[in-house]
Amino acid sequence: MSKDSFxxxxxxxxxxxxxxxxxxxxGVKKSWVYDQVEAGRLPVVRLGKQLRFRETDLAGYLAxxxx
Length: 67
Known about the structure:
The radius of gyration is 14 Å and the shape is globular. It has 4 helices and 3 strands, in the order αβααββα. A hairpin with a 2-residue loop joins β2 and β3. The protein is an alpha+beta fold.
């Protein structure tokens, strides 16, 4: 991606939330989140030892999980 082609839309998709925020949004326990990440079912961004989640990835996960 060149600097000239950046329109800001890509930046919105980079918004990250942490484990506590995810638990609050979805009403799940931390252990569930960690289990899903370890199993490779929940997409994650690792920043050192910290886990972060892209909002767009989470929306995709929910779309696939809800049938």
